[in-house]
Design brief:
Blueprint (H helix, E strand, L loop, with lengths): L5 E6 L2 E6 L5 H11 L6 E4 L4 E3 H17 L7 E5 L4 H13 L2 E4 L6 H11 L3 E4 L4 H10 L6 E4 L6 H7 L14 E7 L7 E6 L2 H13 L7 E4 L6 H14 L2 E3 L7 H11 L3 E4 L1 H10 L12 E4 L6 H11 L3 E6 L6 E4 L12 E2 L4 E5 L12 E6 L6 E2 L3 H7 E3 L2 E10 L5 E6 L4 E3 L2 E3 L1 H9 L4 E10 L5 E9 L7 H14 L8 E4 L13 H7 L1
Parallel strand pairs: 3-12, 5-6, 5-7, 7-8, 11-12, 11-13, 13-14, 14-15, 27-28
Antiparallel strand pairs: 1-2, 3-4, 9-10, 10-20, 15-16, 16-17, 18-19, 19-22, 21-22, 22-23, 24-25, 26-27
Helix pairs in contact: 1-2, 1-3, 2-3, 2-6, 4-5, 7-8, 10-11
């Protein structure tokens, strides 16, 4: 086979991939479009610019050369704290083409989070949008080890100007399908983020296995994802999926709101829209009094957390089709179990996609009986290889032969649809993003009036999970609505905005084990 090529055949419904021994995925995702006549087709649209596939290929080359010139070597890590914009794509695929490992980071985090990731990743470079300087720069100052190369996307010494000075031709760094390609940080049940290491093949395999049976993308599609590029769901939606098929994508760095999404949809007429249940709920409320033109959308996709059945029905009533819900993970690259547009069942995650396998198992790893609750294991060629510097968590999660212990509990109904039953640990998924109760508890305890805190997830009126805080005060008599409001602002000031508790309960004690650990499952059962 020619270097950097892949052959895809079929065994029944399942695609089978044969990769060249030398394989750099950037060639397939970026360079291939020039040979297939798409140089003048639009790849990206923003409110400020349009980028063709020809311009994209040149800028990816320039960016890769700029990163090498800055002293970042192949196989070294480059953290990206970058808003949704074309530069994100240039950096990500420019790094991959140059052999550098891009590590997109959640742009909603705080300085202490960035400090940990800078130190943990041992990154050689860090690039950030100026919008996030207030959190990034203190993290760099506090880090025990500062990366050798740090710059912003803008400014005289920023990436944009570096690209202008760089060469526009770049040979792909020799790699292979199983070589490390990119990382994503995934939070764990202890709150310590895990560097999830993905291989060259992973994003391409998932782009085919998910999109062919669910989205049926063509180069005439226009995509818009309210979910941002920094985490796995948005990374597939706005970058890997459209680039695999030569489609066009609308990017916006605005905070997702019903008003923002409706404006984008009316202006750019996307055919595929990606949201998360929290946003769908807000959009459905807005649609009770507004009538935006959403007729361009042929498929709406939901992921990030389980979609409640009432929101499924409301969106179908207002828009004419239901959101296609699915389950995926950072470790799996994107979605591996999904509903289909022609076969969507409310309150379920759908069925296993061709090319993936799934099991629901008990604590001993034995398959449970139909209808029983168990832990979901999934197998497929898009699963991450390992967690960086966390061999015990790797052994617990990556089970060999591309099997993944998702940490989610599931049942399978009588029709074969997979039904989500919650996490097998204490993590809380808010707005499609995992957060740790320990982190929220620590912030609450920082307040001078708080002695202890226990945080769990609780469903709101829309069936969406949000943090709920149970608090022991140093002086129980201080409990008041005014103190609850003060604690709310205390959390908002020190945590990413989606992590603050929505409810505060002042209690005299918390359920604990004999060794003093909070029994959060008992707090959940009290709601």
């Amino acid at each position: 086979m020619e270097p950097n090529t892949v052959h895809i055949e079929r065994e029944g419904d399942a695609p089978v991939f044969t990769f060249a021994d030398s394989f750099n995925v950037s060639v397939h995702m970026i360079d291939r479009h020039l040979n297939e006549g798409r140089a003048d087709r639009l790849a990206y649209i923003t409110d400020h610019e349009k980028v063709t596939y020809g311009q994209l290929a040149e800028r990816v080359n320039r960016c890769g050369n700029a990163l090498l010139s800055a002293g970042i070597s192949p196989r070294e890590r480059m953290l990206m704290i970058v808003k949704d914009c074309p530069e994100f794509v240039y950096l990500y695929y420019g790094a991959i083409k140059a052999g550098i490992i891009p590590v997109p980071i959640n742009t909603l985090l705080r300085a202490k989070d960035y400090k940990y990731m800078i130190e943990d990743s041992m990154c050689a470079g860090l690039i950030y949008s100026p919008d996030f300087a207030a959190e990034v720069e203190p993290a760099l100052k506090a880090a025990a080890r500062r990366p050798a190369f740090v710059t912003s996307t803008e400014g005289e010494q920023g990436v944009q100007q570096m690209m202008v000075r760089a060469e526009n031709e770049l040979s792909p760094h020799p790699s292979d399908p199983l070589a490390d390609c990119f990382w994503l940080y995934s939070s764990g049940s202890t709150g310590r983020p895990k560097g999830t290491v993905h291989r060259q093949r992973d994003l391409l395999v998932n782009s085919v296995l998910y999109t062919e049976p669910v989205l049926n993308i063509t180069e005439d599609d226009i995509m818009f994802s309210a979910a941002k590029l920094f985490f796995a769901y948005g990374l597939g939606n706005s970058m890997n999926f459209p680039l695999n098929y030569g489609a066009c994508t609308v990017l916006s760095d605005e905070r997702p709101t019903p008003e923002m999404t409706f404006r984008i949809i009316e202006k750019y007429k996307p055919t595929i829209y990606y949201g998360v249940p929290t946003l769908y709920a807000a959009q459905c409320r807005a649609l009770e009094t507004e009538s935006p033109d959403l007729s361009s959308i042929r498929i709406s996709v939901s992921a990030g957390e389980s979609l409640p059945a009432p929101i499924f029905e409301r969106w179908r009533e207002k828009v004419g089709h239901p959101p296609v819900d699915g389950i995926g993970s950072t470790e799996g690259t994107h979605i591996f179990i999904s509903n289909r547009p022609e076969d969507a069942k409310a309150g379920t995650s759908g069925k296993v996609l061709p090319g993936y396998k799934a099991r629901i198992v008990d604590d001993e790893g034995n398959d449970v009986k139909p209808g029983e609750v168990g832990r979901l294991w999934v197998q497929g060629q898009s699963m991450a290889a390992y967690y960086w510097n966390q061999p015990e968590r790797t052994e617990q999660t990556m089970l060999g032969n591309d099997w993944l212990n998702t940490g989610d509990t599931y049942t399978q109904d009588e029709d074969g649809y997979y039904v989500y039953n919650g996490r097998s640990d204490d993590m809380i998924k808010v707005g499609g993003i995992w957060c740790s109760p320990i982190e929220i508890e620590s912030r609450l305890i920082d307040h001078p009036k708080v002695l202890e805190a226990g945080v769990v997830g609780r469903e709101d009126s829309d069936g969406l999970v949000k943090p709920e805080a149970h608090i022991i005060l140093k002086e129980h008599g201080d409990a008041s609505d005014e103190l609850a409001a003060e604690l709310l602002e205390h959390c908002k000031d020190g945590l990413a905005r989606y992590k603050y508790p929505r409810w505060f309960h002042f209690v005299e004690d918390l359920p604990k084990t004999a060794t003093g650990k909070i029994q959060r499952f008992k707090l959940r059962s009290e709601d």
